[in-house]
Amino acid sequence: MRDLLPPSVAVAVATADDWAGELLAAEQAGLSEQAVQARRRDFTAGRVCARRAMAVLGLPPTAVPAAADRAPVWPAGVVGSITHTTGYCAAAAARSTDIRSVGMDAEQHREINEGVRRLVLLPEEEEACAQLPAGTSWPVVFFSAKETVYKVWYPIVGSWLDFHDARLEVDPDAGTFTARIAPARVDAADVVDPPATISGRFVVADGLARTAAVLLPR
Ligand SMILES: CC(C)(COP(=O)(O)OP(=O)(O)OC[C@H]1O[C@@H](n2cnc3c(N)ncnc32)[C@H](O)[C@@H]1OP(=O)(O)O)[C@@H](O)C(=O)NCCC(=O)NCCS
Fold it and tell me: Is the pTM of this model over 0.90?
């Protein structure tokens, strides 16, 4: 993840101990009493990483509660993103003077079935995946990139994006992607200068597809 983001973004990747780390009081409410152990451990690792990333920025260990919509609530002046998947968790944080919004996502690198592909990919994206170099499950890369796009979009705009609301182009050699957001979503956004395109980077390694993107301040 570190290599996918600019130097002004601090990145922390969980170590084995982080899944059994401590939550701050304000973060406890983000977990229901009934949360299963796996969810508890993922949520905890994300918060431990978030605080470690903020420490890299020179910030004190501040809670990152979960909003009612599940989005993380970063301290004033900070933007960030959290991702977890089996065996992997990372958080990114940056000062909002440097970065307008940041998103990142990690997925297991595997084939995805036709039903999920149809949900995630536009027909032209499905065709593009078939033309991209063999050896990579491109639909997973597209899926992860679209989740990253949503994590960049949502903290700014506060509205939903369907998977078909972003049309993705991938450059396999450069390890980059660009998402064009459906004009109707951009026009409907109740915010100054909503992003019409979101560009980021991806890498497939160690059994994971990882994607990340930032928007710079206006
Ligand atoms: C929110 C979502 C993107 C999370 O992705 P995921 O692969 O399921 O899970 P990840 O582990 O990568 O990310 C989970 C983290 O995302 C963060 N998150 C949740 N909702 C969020 C939101 N609205 N905005 C930004 N970050 C959010 C949280 O920190 C969460 O971890 P936590 O609950 O432990 O705090 C996904 O569940 C979702 O709702 N996707 C549908 C919308 C979408 O992706 N549209 C595509 C548009 S092109």
Answer: yes
